[in-house]
Specification:
4 helices, elongated, binds protoporphyrin IX containing FE
């Protein structure tokens, strides 16, 4: 830190932002895997019930982590943009903004689907979350479709995001990925 100028932007993302990013990745991977597998499990089976419960509770955790991330982002300073073409910076900002929006919209659409289907939402058996809307069978299908398409839109963005991160790391060989990883060197 001896070379750091007091007024300069930090060299890497603040630790809370890093931890929330990687916790979010783990949660999203588990929720997506559960979601894709659970729908094909035999109806009425204990495993199916368990996976639906976990999918919903972990999905709400994704919503909570996304809100915490937005709070952390508002409170801490982002590192300065690395040198690179201006269009890349604009595309990255747009993609990050869309991912934040979808990290809220995907779980909220799931919560809505659960509500119109008339299902309870006991979050890890600890608190009963209220429904977002009244039970309404006519809204089940549209809510299900919205949940699924919002999910695939997020998945597509994440795929591009991961390729961009790996491109920065292995091909451009800049600090983009390293500064999202805990460590001492910038
Ligand atoms: C980031 C969080 C979430 C992701 C990535 C996600 C993803 C998915 C995926 C991929 C499916 C499978 C859809 C299909 O193949 O038909 C699914 C289904 C489902 N999700 Fe989520 N979900 C999330 C959050 C939630 C939440 C918070 C709830 C409820 C509170 C929820 C409720 C449901 C329900 C009830 C289904 C089953 C729909 C059916 O049986 O047809 N999801 N989700
Ligand atoms: C579950 C999937 C993921 C989601 C939803 C996600 C979401 C995000 C978001 C919203 C940001 C913007 C941070 C901000 O400006 O506040 C970000 C930054 C970042 N992510 Fe991810 N991410 C995911 C997976 C990954 C993976 C697997 C990698 C690495 C291979 C990665 C590497 C990065 C890097 C390096 C940054 C910092 C970019 C910069 O400095 O401008 N992400 N991520």
């Amino acid at each position: 830190m001896s070379h750091a100028v007091a007024a300069a932007a930090p060299a890497r993302w603040a630790l809370p932002v890093q931890l929330l990013h990687w916790l979010g990745v783990l949660l999203l991977l588990s929720v997506a895997t559960l979601g894709l597998l659970m729908v094909d499990m035999p109806r009425g089976s204990e495993l199916r019930k368990l996976c639906y419960g976990l999918h919903k509770s972990l999905g709400i955790a994704v919503l909570g982590v996304a809100l915490l991330r937005l709070l952390a982002r508002a409170l801490v300073r982002a590192p300065a943009a690395l040198p690179g073409p201006a269009w890349q910076l604009r595309v990255a900002r747009l993609a990050h903004g869309l991912m934040y929006a979808l990290l809220l919209a995907v779980p909220l659409s799931g919560w809505l689907l659960n509500s119109v289907a008339g299902q309870p939402l006991p979050w890890f058996g600890l608190v009963d979350l209220p429904p977002l809307a009244d039970r309404n069978p006519a809204w089940r299908k549209p809510a299900d479709t919205a949940h699924l398409w919002l999910f695939w839109t997020l998945a597509a963005l994440v795929a591009v995001h991961v390729l961009a991160a790996l491109h920065h790391h292995w091909i451009a060989r800049d600090a983009t990925l390293r500064r999202m990883l805990p460590g001492r060197r910038g």
